[in-house]
Amino acid sequence: MKTYAILSIGDILNIDFSQIEESNENTVRISLDGLEFVIKYTNTPTFIADGSVLPLQVLTHEEALALMATAEWSEPIPVE
After folding, report:
1. Closest to 73 in 3D by CA, of 40, 29, 39, 41
2. Which strand ranges, in their side-by-side order, compose the sheet holding 3-8?
3. How many CB atoms lie within 10 A of CB 22?
4. What is the tens place of the pLDDT at every residue in 25-67?
5. N or C: which end of the chain has fewer CB within 10 A?
């Protein structure tokens, strides 16, 4: 089961991308204000386990989907 973590953008340089599903900082989803990003993993990465990176939120898949659908993470689709 995948876990999703919302992290502060200031932590992006502390991420060991070999431990998560995203391959680098260009493949993470970033909030529209540019202050947060999301990672996903099956096994807790050492940078979270040892406290060097502290998640702002830890979410299930369903919770992450709901968050990604909010105005903070998704541009509104224009109505034509």
Report:
1. 29
2. 29-30, 36-41, 3-8, 57-59
3. 16
4. 899 999 999 999 999 999 999 999 999 999 999 999 999 999 9
5. C
Paired tokens of 8: 């502060």
Q: How far apart are CA 1 and CA 10, in angstroms?
A: 27
Q: Write out 14-34 in H/E/C secondary structure.
A: HCCHHHCCCCCCCCCEECCCC
Instruction: Show me where the domains of the chain are located.
Output: 3-68
pTM of the entire predicted model:
0.91
**Predicted pLDDT of residue 40:** 96
